[in-house]
């Protein structure tokens, strides 16, 4: 089955989907994105992703190419046309294609922003990694200072992933001033004495949609949550650790820089939160 993708108003087979070489996403990484997960053909937390997209666009003075209601329709149409049961929908908005390469933003009335969406079929609820856990390394955080905006400039996170791979690990946690900011494409958590600790929201990290949901569920389940920066040494000494993102939900971390956490197997808090997240998200999926 050929994948059908959405490009600026059209649903086309993936090999016919094209954007201009002058697209500012291509030339300047002048674009933002969202990844929304799909379970049983339904979208998880679409409203949260739409709200964050609006914020990313507004922080960069970029026009929304369609309304959020239209965006939901496009997501649904892609699910149907690709018969997507489980996986993700990737969405990207860029500041469009100007007539030439120019650092200055084009006039939005003359150059409309560009919109691309595609599906990625993947088994995420039943991921084997949830049973074994991830191994992470720590690396310096060398990204720009506005990590709260979900831009498509992902070169450093890609390099971080490659550094992790080279070390025989799954991912990298990024460190700034001795404190963990987040994973290459996920938010980072540790658990110590039953307390869930994760970095507070600021421009230093992406405000994860999964993070917001998981912290809400944790509090509803009477778990203690502390939103503050934690050091990498604190992380290595934690009872357990985990990450969250739309493409992994809640995923245990069992090793940091070669040091096993607890007994080196996925922790109970992470397993419980993964279960609650899956149950609750299924109920509100659209
Ligand atoms: N990444 N932090 C970073 C740097 C991220 O790139 C992501 C998401 C998150 C988690 O956000 P959310 O819970 O809203 O997915 C945190 C997506 C999944 C990606 O780049 O594929």
Overall form: globular
**Oligomeric organization of the protein chains:** single chain
CATH architecture of the largest domain: Alpha-Beta Barrel
Question: What compounds are bound to the protein?
Answer: N-(5'-phosphopyridoxyl)-D-alanine
- The helix/strand class is alpha+beta
Percent helix: 25-40%
The tally of beta strands, per DSSP, is 15
Classified in CATH, the superfamily of the largest domain is D-amino Acid Aminotransferase, subunit A, domain 2
How far is the first residue's CA from the last residue's CA?
Answer: 24 Å
Order of helices and strands: EEHEEHHEEHEHEEEEHEHEEEH
Give the topology.
Blueprint: E1 4-7, E2 10-13, H1 24-28, E3 31-39, E4 42-43, H2 46-59, H3 68-81, E5 87-94, E6 114-121, H4 129-132, E7 134-140, H5 155-166, E8 171-176, E9 179-183, E10 187-192, E11 195-198, H6 209-220, E12 224-227, H7 232-236, E13 240-245, E14 249-256, E15 259-260, H8 268-284
Parallel strand pairs: 7-8, 7-14, 11-12
Antiparallel strand pairs: 1-2, 1-6, 3-4, 3-5, 5-6, 8-9, 10-11, 10-13, 13-14, 14-15
The structure holds N-(5'-phosphopyridoxyl)-D-alanine.
